[in-house]
Amino acid sequence: MHNKTIVELSRALAAGEFSSTELTTHFLQRIHSLDEQYNSFITVTEERALADATEADERIAQGKATALTGIPLAHKDIFCTQGIRTSAGSKMLDNFIAPYESTVTANFNAAGCVMLGKTNMDEFAMGSSNENSFYGPVSNPWDTKAIAGGSSGGSAAAVAARLTPAATGTDTGGSIRQPASHCGITGLKPTYGRVSRWGMIAYASSLDQAGPMARTAEDVALLLQAMAGMDPKDSTSVDRPVEDYSATLNESLQGLRVGLPAEFFAEGLDSDVEQCVSNAVSELEKLGATVKQISLPNSNLSVPSYYVIAPAEASSNLSRFDGARFGYRCDQPQDLEDLYKRSRGEGFGAEVKRRILVGTYALSAGYYDAYYIQAQKIRRLIKNDFINAFNDVDVIVGPTAPTPAFNLGEKADDPVAMYLSDIYTLSTNLAGLPGMSIPAGQVSGRPVGLQIIGNYFSEAKLLNIAHRFQQATDWHLKAPTDIGA
Amino acid sequence: MSFDRTDVERTAHLARLSINESDIENTTETLTHILQLVDQMQAVDTSGITPLAHPLEAVQRLRADQVTESDQRDAFQQIAPATENGLYLVPKVID
Amino acid sequence: MGWETVIGLEVHVQLATKSKIFSGASTVFGAEPNTQASLVDLGMPGILPVVNEQAYRYAVMFGLAIDAKISKRSYFERKNYFYPDLPKGYQTTQLEQPIVGPGHIQIQLPNGDTKEVRIHHAHLEEDAGKSLHEDFHGMSGIDLNRAGTPLIEIVSEPDMRSSAEAVAFAKKLHSIVTSLGICDGEMSQGSMRFDVNVSVRKKGSEVLGTRTETKNLNSYRFMEEAIALEVERQIDLIEDGGTVLQETRLYNADTRTARSMRSKEEANDYRYFPCPDLLPVEIDDEFIEAARASLPELPDARQARFMDQYKLSEYDVSQLAQYRDTAEYFEKVTKTCKDAKLAANWVTGELASRLNKESLNITHSPVGADQLGEMLLRVKDDTISGKGAKTVFDSMWNKEGSADDIIASKGLKQVSDSGALEAMIDEVMAANTAQVEQYRASPAEKRGKMIGFFVGQIMKASRGSANPGQVNKLLKVKLDG
After folding, report:
1. What are A459-483's pLDDT values in tens digits?
2. Where do you find CATH 1.10.10.410 in chain C?
3. What residues pair up with C12 in beta bridges, in sequence order?
4. Neighbours of C307 (CB within 10 A)
5. For residue C388, what pLDDT is reported?
6. For residue C263, pLDDT beyond 60
7. Mean pLDDT for the stretch of residues C146-165
8. Structural domain count of chain A
9. Per residue in C108-130, pLDDT tens?
10. How far is CA C374 from CA A235, C332, C406, in A?
11. Alpha-carbon distance C347 to C327, whole Å?
12. How many CB atoms lie within 10 A of CB A419?
C-alpha cells in the first residue's frame, strides 16, 4: 500500500480494495516501526488519524468522497492544528496546543484527508539541514548519515520513507524544494499568495509560502488543488481563480522554451549534480523543449539580500514569543526584563537567536538604510531579472541545490556555508515566483533534484512539465532500500 | 561592517535575548561572518531603485466592520503560563 | 526677560468602529478582561491582520474635516518594542506614508480671538492593551481587550503658546471628532488621550528649546495642570543653570506631580519597517468622495449657520454649536418652542449648569429636548412664570412627568386674565390706601421701586400664580391713574 501514489490510493479506496482505516493503520504501523531512525515526526496523532479514517470511510461509503478523502497526510509542525501541539520545532512552543486551525490544514480536513501527525522541521523554519530542531535532526532515508534537508526535512523524509503518501511543507528560501531534492521527492513552492498563510507560524512573512510534497507531480497537483485559493483572513493571499492543476498535466511540451541561467551553473555547483541536471535538460529537449542560455545577473546577490530581509522580518515576527501569553516561560522571572530575556534566550535555539540578532541589527537605527533598504532594492533587481528572463523563456531550469545531501554535522558549525547551500532557491522567494523540485538523478546513492521555476501563477505549467518528465523518467519511482517492505 | 561585543550586547538587549557570557565571543564572530556575507550588497549601486517590500506589489483588501469573534478566553488562557481573574500575569510592570 | 511656552500635541482618538482595526473582535468598552481579545489581538503564532474598512473611512473623514491632504496610497509599518500590553512585540502603525497629511484647525481663544493650529499629519494605528497595577502576588495583570482598537493619532505642529491654547485645541478636536461621529468622545474611558510636548524659550527667540513629552493625559484639567507644572519645572531648571533633557514624563493627577518614565528612559530604537503581513492601502476618488458626502455638519459651519439662522449672540453660538450633541439638543428644543433665544438661554443656562453639576453628558440628560421645548412653550404662552418654569424643570429632572402634568399637579398655572388680576389689584389697593397715597405723592423715579411692594402683595394674595409681568403692567395703569 505504501508504494502507491495518492492517485492510485484514491482509486483503490473508491474501488473498495481497502478502507482508509486499513490504509491509515498501515502507515501508522510504518511510522512506529521505522521512524526511530529518521525522526521525521514530532507528534504522531494516532487517535485523531483513526477517527479521521473512520469518518472518511463513511464519506466514501456515502459517495461523498473527494479525490483526497481517506488519504493519510502529515503536516509540517508549523501549521496550527487545533487541540494538537504545534511546536514549530522549538522548545519555545513545546507546550503549545494550538487553539485554532490553519487554513491549509482546515482545507485538507474539509477534503476528508487523514492527519497522521506533525513532521519535524528546523526551528521556526530556519535552516537548510533540519539540524536546528529542538526535537533532534532528521536523517535522510536514502542514507541516514546524510541530512534530509531543511527546513521541511521531516516532511521530505517521511514521504521518501513511505511513512506517509504526502506531506505539507513551507518554503521561505527553499525549505520545500531543497529537502525534496535531497530526499528524492517532488515538491512545489507556489507563487507567493497562492496559498493562505493563516495559521502557519511566520518566519518571514513576505517570503513564506506553503506547498505540497509528494512523490509525483500528479499527486502534488491534487494536493495543491486543495491548498490554493484566496483566504479573507490572509491579506496577502491572492484573489484569483484556482486552475484545475490536474487537467493540464499531460499537455505537450512541444515548443516549451527552457532557460538555463548561467549563474546557476557557475562555481560552487557539484559536477555530478551538474551532470544530472544536464541529463534532465536533454530529457526535456527530447520531450519537445527548446533550451536557451539566459542570465539572472543579480542572482548572486540573493544570499545577502535574503539573509537581511528574512531575519529582519523574523526578528519582528518572533517578538510575540515573550513568555507572557503562551509558550515557554523561564523559571522564576525576577522582573519583566528577566522574563523576556530568559524566556527567549532559553526558549529559542542558536540559529533562531542568530537570525533574530542579525535582523534586529539590520533594522536598527543607523543600519536600516544600508541593510534593510539596500536588501529590498536588490530584491527588486532580482525580481526584474526574472521578469526580463520570462520575456524570452517559459520556464527556468537548474539545480535545486549545489550538492547532494551533505552529512549530518558537516556544516552545523558554519552558518555561512549552510546559508550558501540555499543559493539556487532563495531568488524565487525574493521574487515571489513558483518553483518545483523533482527527482532527476542520484550521486552516490543520494538523490539530486531538478529545479523548475515559472512565471507568476504558472503552477499548472510547472506541474505539466514535471509530470511529462516523470512519464519519461523513473527517478521519482526510486525508493530508498532500507525502508521496510 | 565590523561587529563587536558592544554591538552584540546592544542588539541582544533590543531583541530581549539573554546570551550567556561564554557565548558572546562566539556569537560576535559568527555574526561578523554573516555580516561580511551580507555586505556583498554594499558594492551594488542601487540609486534610483525602489525598494521591494512585497513580491507581488498588490494592494490591501479592506474588511467590512463586523464583529465576527466571540469570547474564547477560557480556551486561549488554557495555554497561558500564568493567569488570574482572566488576566495574564507578568512580573510587575513599572512605567 | 520673559519666557515663552511652546506646545505641540499628539492626540490618540479611538475610532467608534464596531470591530477592531485588524480583527473581528468587539471594541465595546467595559467588558470582562480578555473576553474581547481574539487570536489576532493576542498575537497568537500564525495569525494575520486584515484592515477594517470603516477605520480607514473614519480616518479619511477626519482628514477631510481638517482640510488635509488624503494619501491615496498609505501603508502600515511595525514599531518594534517589548511591553506586556503589546502582544505581538510591535505596534502596527503608519510612519512614512500616513493616511492623513498636513491640515489645519481653527481654535477659539478665551479672549475671543481665533488662531490656526497646523496639523502635521494623522495616522492610523492599533491601540495597546492595559496593564493593571493592582498587586497579584507581586505580578501585574494584563487585559488585552483594548489591544487592536483602531486609533488615529493626530500630531499637531508646535503652534500653541499656552495651556489655554492647548486646551482650546483639545476641545476643538473633541468637537470635530464627535461631530463627525468617528469617536464617542468619552474621555473618562480613554477614548481621547493627549500627549503634550512642552518646551520653553526666551521671548523673541526663534529656536525651539528641548521638549519633554508628558503622556496619556485624559482630561483638559490634567492637561492644564501638567503643562503648568512642566513649564515651571523647565524654567526653574534653566534659570538654575541646568538643561532640559528630552524625556517622556508621566503626570500623576492624584498627587499633581510628574516624573520621568523609567521604562522609556533608555534610548528607544523602534526599528520601524513596512508590515509584511499587510499590503499598501490604495483608496480612490470614489472612496474619498463618498466619505466627503457622508460628512455631517462641522462645528465651524454650524456656528456660522446658528448665527445666521437663529440670530443668536456670539457667546450663545460658541456654547451651542461646538458639540454636535448640544447643537442637536438645542435645535430640537427650538423646533418645539419656536423661540431660539429662549431655548439658548435654557440650554446654556439652567440645563448646562445642572448637567455640569452632575457630570452628565447632554445625551444622558434626564430632561429630553422635547420635554424642555414643551415647557418653554408654556413659558412663552405665559402659562407659567420664569420662576414656575424652574420648578417645572426641577420636577422634570426628577422624572415627575411632562411639563403640563407638573404645571397642573403643582398648580403652577399663572393667572394672566386681566379681569381676575384687576380684581386682585383693586383689593390690594383698597387694603393699602396709605401706600397708594405715598406712591402717588412720590416723583416718577422713585415709583419704580415702590411698585415692588404692590407686586409682592399681589403675588402673595395669588399664592404665586399671578403673572408678574401682567401684574406690573396693570398695576402701573391703576396706580398712576
Report:
1. 999 999 999 999 999 999 999 988 8
2. 418-480
3. C153, C193
4. 15
5. 84
6. no
7. 97
8. 1
9. 887 878 999 999 999 999 999 99
10. 55, 11, 12
11. 10
12. 21
Q: What is the pLDDT of residues A239-276, one digit of tens each?
A: 999 999 999 999 999 999 999 999 999 999 999 999 99
Q: Does C97 touch chain B (CB under 8 A)?
A: no
Query: Does any domain span residue A150?
Result: yes
The 3 state secondary structure assigned to B43-80 is HCCCCCCCCCCCCCCCCCCEECCCCCCCCCHHHHHCCC
Q: What are the CA-CA distances from residue C18 to residues A263, C26, C63 (Å)? A: 54, 6, 21
Q: What span, in angstroms and rounded, lies between the C-alpha atoms of A324 and A345?
A: 14
The distance of A408 to chain C (nearest Cα, Å) reads 30
Q: Which of A434, A336, A347, A351 is nearest to A394 (CA)?
A: A434
Question: Domain for residue A396, yes or no?
Answer: no
How large a percentage of chain C has pLDDT more than 70?
98
Owner of C-alpha cell 492543476? A245
> Three cell numbers at C332?
430640537
- Beta bridge partners, A187, equal A213, A437
Please check whether residue C37 is in contact with residue C175, taking contact to mean a CB–CB distance below 8 angstroms.
no
Give me the domain span that covers residue A199: 6-256
Our answer to whether residue A151 is catalytic in this structure is yes
Q: Which of C423, C438, C437 is nearest to C475 (CA)?
A: C423
In the annotation, is A196 catalytic?
Answer: no
Give the torsion sign (CA, C55, C57, C61, C64): positive
Backbone dihedral angles phi then psi of residue A275, each to the nearest 5 degrees: -65, -45
CB contact under 8 A, B53 and A364: no
Q: By the CB < 8 Å criterion, does A365 face chain C?
A: yes
Answer whether A217's CB lies under 8 Å from A470's CB: yes
Task: Give pLDDT, residue C1.
Answer: 64
Q: Which of C80, C82, C269 sits opposite A322 (nearest CB)?
A: C82
ipTM: 0.97
CATH code of residue A107: 3.90.1300.10
Three-state DSSP at C322 gives coil
DSSP output for C127-158: PP-EEEEEEETTEEEEE-SSTT-EEEEEEE-S
Collapsed DSSP state (helix, strand, coil) of residue C222: helix
The CB density around residue C373, as the number of other CB atoms within 10 Å, is 22
- Kindly state the cell numbers that stand for C341: 433665544
Q: What is the pLDDT of residue C56?
A: 97
To which residue does cell 403675588 refer?
C459
Q: Judge whether A215 lies within some domain.
A: yes
Q: Which residue bears the cell 521591494?
A: B52
Residue A330 lies in a domain: no
Neighbours of C380 (CB within 10 A): 13
Alpha carbon distance C146, C37 (integer Å): 8
The angle formed by the CA atoms of residues A257, A458 and A160, to the nearest 5 degrees, is 95
Cα–Cα distance, A204 to A431 (Å, whole number):
14
C-alpha–C-alpha distance, residues C158 and C155, integer Å? 9
> Which of these, A75, A185, A184, A178, lies nearest to A129 by C-alpha position?
A178
- Cβ distance A162 to A50 under 8 Å? no
C132 has a chain A CB within 8 A of its CB = no
pLDDT tens track for A100-145:
999 999 999 999 999 999 999 999 999 999 999 999 999 999 999 9
Spot the catalytic one: A90, A151, A237, A246: A151
The SS3 assignment for C11 reads strand
Number of inter-chain CB pairs under 8 A, A vs B: 173
Which CATH number fits the domain C418-480, given the four candidates 3.40.50.720, 3.10.180.10, 3.30.930.10, 1.10.10.410? 1.10.10.410
How far does the CA of residue C324 sit from the closest CA of chain B (Å)? 24
Grid coordinates given for A79: 501549521
How far apart are the C-alpha atoms of A366 and A354, rounded to whole Å? 20
Domains of chain B by range and CATH?
5-42 (1.10.20)
Residue whose entry in the numeric block shows the C-alpha cell 423661540:
C339
